[in-house]
């Protein structure tokens, strides 16, 4: 709808400006006579109609999506010839032998100028439409890339969760039921996400809580979890599954490798218009390990790059006997 309104606004303003300028220049030479005022008023109307017909024809033929420049400019030139014929014919009908275009010396240059204006219209139309469609294609590719990244759920997590639940079905049925509900919540959350590829941090915390409940059933006392969440950050938009991937990374590469397990600390804070989301886990990151690619963290980095155009970052570093994964996301556009 907005594109259609913009098109008609440009059509009316563009041809009105050109016709008005031509009328004013002609009136300075010949005065405000019928030949000038009626001729240019009609020129304004049929120029809109003819170029709109030209647009419909080239769009119907698909000449813009797969540019056929010779055909495009031939069609624009033919449109200009029709406009020129109407200009000359209407002038002759109104003024007869007193028409300003009775002489070839005025008729031919006028026809050439009008044809060039029509081809100029085609150049502008192609530039605007091609630019818009290129942006649409880039957005579609960006959306597809994000959807692919968001859909990456670790299958090992599903298998491990189902095995944990299976072991509890007879031993602790109420807990097994609770974990099945939490697993269903995670799967539902992963399937139903905001079309803009972001969700409130509060939703992420809820999903991460379900995830940690499942992992706690697996690791039992080896996994100890703390939260330190600034209430002001709960409504801030973040990429979906971001927190779960950070938590999963901390458990898989940190706590799971320690015989005695360890602590996982999830925190958030606001610093100068930036959301600082952090997951710390007990452990130590070796220098060569820091350089190794990790699917979950690479997924996060790619989504941050696409969504925030380089203004959001993920860092992984050692900190006082812990490994800290820190995400910084701007809260202002």
Subunit arrangement of the protein: single chain
* Count of helical stretches: 10
Helix-strand topology string = HHHHHHEHEEHEEHHEE
Radius of gyration: 33 Å
Largest sheet, in brief, is: 5 strands, mixed
Q: What's the CATH superfamily of the largest domain, by name?
A: Histidine kinase-like ATPase, C-terminal domain
- Mean of residue pLDDT? 82
Going across the biggest sheet, name each strand in turn: 2-4-5-7-6
Q: Structural class, from secondary structure content?
A: alpha+beta
CATH architecture of the largest domain: 2-Layer Sandwich
Q: Give the uncertain stretches in residue-range form.
A: none
Q: Which strand-content bin applies to the residues?
A: 5-15%
CATH top level of the largest domain is: Alpha Beta
- Helical residue percent band: 55-70%
Termini, distance in Å? 25 Å
> Would you tell me which CATH topology of the largest domain applies?
Heat Shock Protein 90
Overall structural domain count: 2
Shape: rod-shaped
Strand runs, count: 7
